[in-house]
Design goal:
About 25% of the residues lie in helices and about 35% in strands. The chain contains 3 helices and 10 strands. The longest helix has 23 residues. With about 160 residues, it is an alpha+beta fold.
Length: about 160
């Protein structure tokens, strides 16, 4: 068997490390300027921790917004914990980096999308591979008890 360099896996780790570094800075210094994040994650990930009603409402994935109000942001090597407000109901979450599917900061048109292994196999058989977000994706920005609203990232472009 021929040994090869797994660039996809290496990029995956590097991009998750970037997210960790950004969140650590926010935990220490707050969000600078207009920066804010849309983070979509797999609610079925075995290490994801969220309230039962949130898991029931979002059985596969959930997008959270870190912008105006968040509390108790704690960043570790494996993931981060944060308390977010859902319709006047503060709820603690723990999101492992491995559960993150997209990380977007629309204030600077920056985004990462982590392709799942199944999607890659359907496309070309490569391992997990982060790809920059091209801005054409839609992000569910619902952080309340109302029905989800889908907005295009183009609406945040300058």
């Amino acid at each position: 068997m021929t040994r090869s360099i797994d660039y996809g896996s290496l990029m995956h780790r590097a991009m998750r490390s970037l997210i960790q570094e950004v969140l650590q800075d926010v935990a220490e210094n707050g969000l600078p300027g207009a920066h804010h994040f849309f983070i979509t994650f797999d609610t079925n990930h075995p290490e994801a921790q969220l309230a039962p009603w949130l898991r029931e409402r979002y059985p596969e994935e959930m997008t959270v917004v870190m912008q105006h109000w968040f509390d108790a942001l704690e960043v570790s090597d494996d993931g981060f914990s944060v308390t977010l407000n859902f319709g006047e109901s503060p709820e603690p979450l723990h999101i492992p980096y491995d559960a993150i599917q997209t990380f977007v900061d629309p204030s600077v048109e920056f985004g990462l999308r982590f392709e799942s292994h199944e999607e890659d196999e359907d496309d070309n058989g490569d391992d997990d591979d982060p790809t920059p977000d091209d801005g054409d994706d839609h992000v569910d920005t619902d952080d309340s008890h109302q029905d989800a609203e889908v907005v295009s990232l183009d609406s945040f472009r300058k």
